[in-house]
Each structure stands twice: as structure tokens, then as C-alpha cells.
Amino acid sequence: MTNIFQTPKNFPLTADALREVIKRFPTPFHIYDEKIIRENFRRLREAFSWAPDFREHFAVKATPNPYIVEVLARDGAGTDCSSIAELFISQAADVVGEKIMLTSNDTPAEEFRKALELGAIINLDDITHIAYLEQNARLPEIISFRYNPADIMNDGNDIIGRPAEAKYGLTREQIFAAYKICLDKGIKRFGLHTMIASNERKASTFIYTARIMFELAAKIKSELGIKFEFVNLGGGLGIPYRPDELPVDLKTIGDGVKELFHEILVPVGLGDVRLAMESGRAITGSAGWLVSTVLHKKNTYKQYVGLDSCMSDLMRPALYDAYHHITILGKEDEPCDEVYDVTGSLCENNDKFAIDRRLPHIDVGDIVIIHDTGAHGHAMGFNYNGKLRSAELLIRESGKIEMIRRAETLNDYFATLNFPNARLKLNH
Known about the structure:
Layout: H1 15-24, E1 29-33, H2 34-47, E2 54-59, H3 66-74, E3 78-81, H4 84-92, E4 100-102, H5 109-118, E5 121-124, H6 129-136, E6 142-147, H7 172-184, E7 189-194, H8 203-224, E8 230-232, H9 250-265, E9 274-277, H10 281-284, E10 288-299, E11 303-307, H11 316-320, E12 326-328, E13 338-343, E14 352-359, E15 367-371, E16 391-395, E17 401-405, H12 410-414
Parallel strand pairs: 1-16, 2-3, 2-9, 3-4, 4-5, 5-6, 6-7, 7-8, 8-9, 11-13
Antiparallel strand pairs: 1-10, 10-11, 10-15, 12-15, 13-14, 16-17
Helix pairs in contact: 2-9, 8-9
């Protein structure tokens, strides 16, 4: 009997349709579903539909492709950027002005200058960045600071760590001083920001974050007279990577934040504050898959299945010991009665997508689908061992499938080398 509490791990194409796609676009590739991306965004927006204003600044780092940003922008999403490349991606997708937030850290001057050129909201990570920004660019019309609540949050997070040990944000004492400095310099428009969790599915974490931030906004208004234009609660909404996990309860979060909004902000004259978030994984994570082909099988002390993809295509299992569900095309209903390590070809022993995973019998040539790779999948790719990053495809709502990023070639890999003569100019 099916467990009613399971999260189904489905793939949007039939076996025949996927095989036709593979004829056009050889594996490996990441493939995303536009319909699911838009549905995920709309669910988040609906949870905060009660707010006077709500804006999702999509975390571009999750899936840094202008096609994805453009899909979300059509539904009203902005962007959260952490580099100059992500600012250019936003610009390419016609996301400009205050729909962009630059939330970087250890930020070079050119990134600040590009953000100012686009009219983006500057979200500073340290009090010393005020002077750096003023000296190397200019002070903006609107400014925000990232708050680190330290040990107010007792539970750490496997990805972002305990706030007190994280490199991000200002202390409570610093954040009051930072806003005072900006007031004295003539800045009149302000926002407030935090980001203290990652891949978190407990609604209570986000409701507690809202309490911390609303109480801080109220206190700063009381002491400094600042009437914030927005409070950004960050991102970090998790997804159920395992079939036996439940998705985050967005309605519970929205209802809990609404109660605190009216309890804390409305009485102090902040009832028109815009609420914002910077979700990435919650929007695109479940809408992406890494599709690979089995190249080899090896039977030594364990059974190994070797794919044509590797850790450069999906780093999360090696970096975080993260689980990604795996299905074998055409064998979804077969018994999982064999145990495999599913590996890539990188010269690193942690280049494994799964360890001791129970799966159906696998043959060379089988198509392997790795689920929930739509965020922090292709984006975290690298070229160690000279591995080339794979293509990205998008399933449009119409059913049309587009290549939105081609696979890298050896010529791409060698393009930045200034090596004498033409020995590295390859016909590949």
C-alpha cells in the first residue's frame, strides 16, 4: 500500500519522449520544467497574499540562467544576486531597478558599481562596507543591512551553520550603528534583511525568523526613527529530497508571519512594510533532473554503476552528503533488489551520487534520472580533471523542449589559456 505521506518522485516526460530528447541532446544534461517552476513560485506568493506587498527576489545562484529568471520575472519575481555575473543575468532577463537585491559578501567595487548602474537595492554584509561603497562607488538612495542574530537561533543548519559561526551579516550592536551612520550621511530609505537557514522544512524556523526581524525593525524605528520600506526574511525554504519527507508547509508559514506582522509591526506604524524573500531551491529545486547514461558496471568489493556524468554536474552528494532520489528509465516499478554505488569518472573517491543505494537491476546503456537537481545542481559545476559542464534544457509549458545552455566543449576549456602556438586549438 502506498504511504500517503510520501512525496512522489515523478519525471515530466514519458520514456519514449525522453529517448527522443536524448537523440537530439546527448546525455548528460539537466532538464527543467517551466510549469513546475511557475507553480512553485505561485504557491509561495499565495502564502503571502495577505501582505500589503510581497516580493520574491529569486536567488539567481540556485539556477543562474536568464531563461529561468525570465520565466519567473513574467510572474512578477525579482532577483537576489551575489555576483556581477548574476547582475548581468538579471539585466539580460529585463529585471532591473529595485526588483534586484545585491546581497553579496566580501564584495568588489565593480559589483557595487554595476548594481548602482542597474538601480538595484544594495544589501550590505558588514558595517565597513559603508565607507568602502562611498569611496569606490557612491552611496545609494536605498540601503539595507544583513542581520546575523548569532545564538538567538539555537539550532544550526548543516549547510549554512550556526549563525554565530557564519561569515555573514552584522551583529545587533553593529546594525544599529550602521543605520545611524547612513542616517547621518543623508540616506532616507532603508530595508532590513537576514538569511539564517538553508534547505529547512520546519515552518517554525521561518516564523521565528520573522519574529526576530519584526522585533528588530520595531526597535530600530523606536531608537533611530527609521521607517523601513521592506523586511526581507531571506530564503532557505527546503524541499523533500527523500520520498518519505514532506514539503514545507507554506500556508502555516504565511499564517504565522501574518500573525506576527499584526502583533509587532502594525502597532508601531510599520503596517505598510513590504515583505520579501529570496527563495531559490523552493522555486526550482523540484523542477529539475540530471539525466545520465550508464557507461560501465564494475563488481569488486561492491557493485558500481558508472555514469557519463560526475560530481562536476552535481556536487551536492559529495559536498553535503546530500540525498538525491534516483530512478531508472523504464524500471520505475521494478523491485529495488540490488545495491549499488552510483558513480562518476572523476579521480576522486567521493565522486558518488549514491552509496549503497537499493535500485532495480541496472544494465549498461540504461538511462538514470537523478531527481531534484533544479537548484544548486548545474550551478555548482566545475572543471577539475578537465571535466566539461553539461547542457541545460527547458520543458516549456507548451511541451516544446529548448536547449537553454549548450554543453561545454574542449575548446571552451582551453579558451582562456594563452599557450604558444595553436596546439590547443582543437577540432572538437
